[in-house]
Amino acid sequence: MGTLYLVRHGQASFGADDYDVLSPRGHEQAVRLGEYWRGRGMAFDAVMTGTLRRHTETLQGIAQGLQTMPEVTRWPGLNEYDSHALISAIHPQPLGPADTPERYRAHFRILCDALAQWMAGVISPQGMPSWEEFSGGVRAVLDHVRHHHAGQNVLLVSSGGPISTAVGEVLGTAPEVTIALNMRIRNSAVTEFSISPKRLMLQTFNTLPHLNEVEHAPLVTHA
Question: 157 and 135 in one domain?
Answer without folding.
Answer: yes
